[in-house]
Amino acid sequence: MSIREREDTMINRRDFGKISLGAGLVATMVRPAWAASAADTAVKAAQQYKGRTITIVWEAGLQSLDPTHFSGPKWKELTGMDVKVVEVATAEMFTKIMQDYKSGAGAYDALNVIPAWMPDLAQAGALEVLDPYVEKYGYASELQTIAPTYRDNQMKVGGKIYGFPDDGDVFLMYYRRDLFEDPAVQKAFKEKTGKDLAVPKTWADFDVVGAGLTDVLKDKGIYGAAFFRQPPYAMYMFEERFRNEGGKFFDADTMKASINSDVGVKVFTAMRNENKFMPPGVEQFGFVENLATFLQGQSAMTISWPPYGRWAEGYGTDQEALNWVPKTTIAGKVGYALPPGGHPELAAGFALSISSTSKNKDAAYLFIQWLNSEDVSRQRVQLPYTLRDPFRNSHYSDPGYLALWPNAKDYLAALKQASQTGLLDLSLLQTDKYEEVLRQAISKLWAGDDPKAILDAAAAQWNDITQKIGVDKQKMVYAAWAAESGAYPKT
Amino acid sequence: MKGVPFHRRKETKLVLRYLIATFLVVIFVFPIYWLFAISFKTPGEIFAFPPVWYPKSIQFNNYAVLFKDGDAKTVGNSLVLSSVSTFFAMIFGTIAAYSLARFKTGGENLGVWIISQRMMPPVAIAFPIFLFYVWLGWVDTYIGLIILYTAFSLPYVIWMMRGYIEEIPLELEESALIDGCNRWEVLWKVVLPMARSGLFATAVFTFVFSWNDFLFALILTRTEVMTYTVQVTHYFGGQSNFWSKIAAMSVLGTIPVFITVATLQRYLVRGISMGAVKG
Amino acid sequence: MAAIAHPDRNFKYCLISPAIFLLLLVGLFPLIFSLVVSFMRVTMLETDTSFAGLVNYVQLFHDARLWQSLLHTALIMVIALPIELLLGLAMAYLFLDRLPGRQLLVSLLMLPTIISPIVAGATWRLLFDNRYGPINQIIGWFAGHPVPALWTVNPGLVYPAIIFCEIWQWTPFMFLILLAALSNVDRSLTEAAEIDGARFWRSFRYVVLPAIFPVMSIAILIRGLDLFRIFDIIWALTAGGPGTMTETISVYTYIQGFRQFETSYTAAIAFLVIALLTVIVTWAIRRMGLAK
Q1: Which positions in chain A touch B127 (Cβ < 8 Å)?
Q2: What mean pLDDT do residues C37-66 have?
């Protein structure tokens, strides 16, 4: 494709996006007077706070472009309220939020919070209970239309609302449709493994497909699969896979850890064996290394968050904010599926909350209601530079989104399915302590230790932590979590 | 090498020294070069397999973006914080060092107490200092961080300058006193010039230590006084890694210090022997 | 012998007062706070400020992970410090006499210390990456075939990687300080020794070393203390992994204090660290005769 032709398609896509965005905006303005949307209610009520400044803590980097370039200025335009964005690096967000709360400084009004932190933050008293505000401003109906998995699992602690789910983070599997549908590859695969080439639905299948594809395609420099194996990321993948294979984190009665069950050992062993057919050094892959490998066509399958799917199609990567994303060489060749096992991890995610020590709670609440509302969230998840993924029922069938690139309908369909079958991150009191043990276990796994020994040690550490926190206390929190629809796959 | 004529020996020695020096510089600078190259590379080049060693084209876009978005201002913030705190630390610290060196003020215990300030793990004191600053209203202010960095630099300055001052022969000061100088003049006219290279070496690292600080800059700032070390960490995300910004920002952050070190070098090494006492 | 006769009493106190004032201002509150809090039970979820006695300190002694982290820290110190010292000294000698372009070369050598340690750590992680980093590429050239050395994952390689990065970053520190110290050594003395027929080592041992000893020993002390607090490189390369193999005391304290908000326990650790260091430093100071 000549440069001119490529530019034309890119401009076309951008125009498409602009037109759809415009259409979406018009649609929001053309609204029967009797259906006051949550966004309108918020804007109206916020008029009384004209001239006020509120601060919101947001993940630094790409994520914060949303409030600094789009939602912040828009809100100011509509209500006269200034939004000061406090950018904080992901790794430090919890620390800064907690420290601000503990010191009573009250410097933050609204917060972005990862749902797994909510029990700790809520218990510590750092988050404001939002039920009264939801009532006051009539937000309950639009809260209902958030996709069920996020709505039911990432909003409440102990029956009270502490945050609005605002990001449809979920793991999807991305694969090279062109390779899977290539007759030559299919033939060679059949010869090598005796099986038909198909997108794997179970992890056992995955191991066969991955190894087989590497065998067939290695000469071309393509591997069957690559994952981000660094402990912080691999931890989520382990949580997902472990439960898909039938594992349970704890025995519900005794609160003894059961990650070292046979399932756990099986998963750990399999994970290590898989590295053999992945690019050498995959144990060190982080988010961007894995992305580069996939976008440059060197892996046939990978699992990651939704942005991979958009960027692989080149959506938004012509934006300056995304100029760090390696140019995709596989646009139009990507297929979307649920990860093997069929129950993907709703890894991380974000919710909008209010700090309990804020001095502008009402004003800040209106801002987050507006951000999270049907109208505004639809626009926000379609921003080309956004990291916010679809999380409302309406997002998955939004005409604007569907028009963004040819394959978008498959993408949204896969995301919707993922949201319906997704699994929650483990979320207890002092979750980070348990997660830390998992991360260390994974690093030991890559170092070559025996899987059973690693998991036994990890389970023992988990039990120690539970003891220290108080078995009964933690048991209650765990029971509440395990009762959620997204905690374990429904058998 | 007894048989070789003297001047030849010096020549080969010079060449040899030069070769080794260059080799060392290459090794030490290579990672910096890599970072520098990244600031011009495209993402495809940064994550090329096999790795590419130089960018295909040099474009300053990544740098321009930093200025446009206001990120480069954080380098300015760091400059202000580090220079001012270094300035004060050098003044207060050097005179304190003189007191300790020449008058044994406070005996051994004071010296140990001073150095013990550097023993506190930063993580343990960051939160109490944050609380203290919240109470004082110094969070996210220039004055707060300047005072902090000055105080943190003092133990280093005091101990280093004490050592350099002790290298200076006492007779010089005594003869100046006899000549009628008062104590302050002795300090200013005799001691400081003699300790010039020590002053420079100490000032450089005092500056560098505050320049490189991350933990306190993270805890004690929010939006007004962000330092470049904190800004750089914003480019490392869970789902993003702005390598070109990281590299460009680091290069920007290195330039002022590099220039300062390069220009002040002549104070460092003294080629002339100090014949003053013997003569 | 360095005391001047009849010191002006006010003068000497005048000299140290600004410094002492600042040190107290910034250092006193955290110290008292930590002390008080270490006798309480302040954690993330509870702010129990009742007197809890020595419970945190007792926990210290049962905390195997803490002592392991101290061991890891000591290991790094014991290996890196001598190398940095000797290498820095050798380099200082190299650059002592005139050399064309010395000004530029010395400035370039300073670059590793000027780069923010966080960026240095991240850059090294990229350099060490098996696929996208040049180091394994270079090793592969020498070996003739790809060498998949996983520097941040393989337990046999993590310590060499960390120590190498640490030496890379901080030898220039020793280098510059020793260069300044060496350049202050009275040339006439060394020249006299040379004329008297003394070989390099004798001259070094009896003339140079005593002259630079005060500065050198302080540099060792400072560098030693900083090595004890090493954090950024390790955090960027391995985050204390694999497992807790490379977890040093700062990494452990960071996790306890900043991730898990065990405020009281962290305060107790802080005091343990101060106590340990004070003992060691006092011994070192006496040994090196720094306060005669």
Answers
A1: 99
A2: 86
pTM for the model? 0.87
Using a CB–CB cut-off of 8 Å, the residues of B that contact A are: 42-44, 46-47, 49, 65, 127, 130-131, 134, 139, 218-219, 222-223, 230, 233-245
Report DSSP letters for A140-156, one per residue: HHHHHTB-HHHHHHSSE
Q: Residue ranges of chain B with pLDDT lower than 70?
A: 1-8, 266-279
Q: How far, in Å, CA of B197 to CA of B203, rounded?
A: 10
- The predicted-structure confidence for A167-184, as pLDDT tens digits, reads as follows 999 999 999 999 999 999
Sequence letter at residue C48 = D
Q: How far apart are CA C70 and CA C73, in angstroms?
A: 5
If phi > 0 it is left, if psi is from -120 to 50 it is alpha, else beta; for residue A325 that is beta
* CATH fold group of domain C64-288: MetI-like fold (1.10.3720)
- Sites in chain A below the pLDDT cut of 50: 1-13, 16, 20, 22, 24, 27-28, 30-34
- Looking at chain B, the whole-number percentage of residues with pLDDT higher than 70 is 92
pLDDT digits (tens, 9 = 90+) for A454-466: 999 999 999 999 9
Q: What distances in angstroms separate CA A387 from CA A146, A395, A400, A421, one per listed residue?
A: 18, 14, 17, 21
Q: Which phi and psi angles does A423 have, rounded to 5°? A: -115, 140
Among candidate residues A297, A290, A287, A302, the one with its CA nearest the CA of residue A340? A302
Q: Which two tokens stand for residue C4?
A: 């001047």
**Residue contact B239–A326, C-beta within 8 A:** no
With contact defined as 3+ CB pairs under 8 Å, the chains touching A are: B, C
CA B85 vs CA A161, A270, B149, B201: distances in Å: 47, 55, 6, 16
CATH number at B69-272: 1.10.3720.10
CA distance A287 to A230: 9
DSSP A176: E
Distance of CA B133 to the CA centre of its chain: 25
**pLDDT of amino acid B277:** 31
Asked whether the beta carbons of C29 and C18 are under 8 A apart, the reply is no
CB A272 within 8 A of CB A215: no
User: DSSP class of residue A403?
Assistant: T
Q: How far apart are CA A434 and CA C264, in angstroms?
A: 20
What are the residue ranges spanned by the domains of chain C? Answer: 1-35, 64-288
Nearest-angstrom CA–CA distance, A423 and A158: 19
User: For chain C, percent helix, then strand, then coil, each to nearest 5?
Assistant: 75, 0, 25
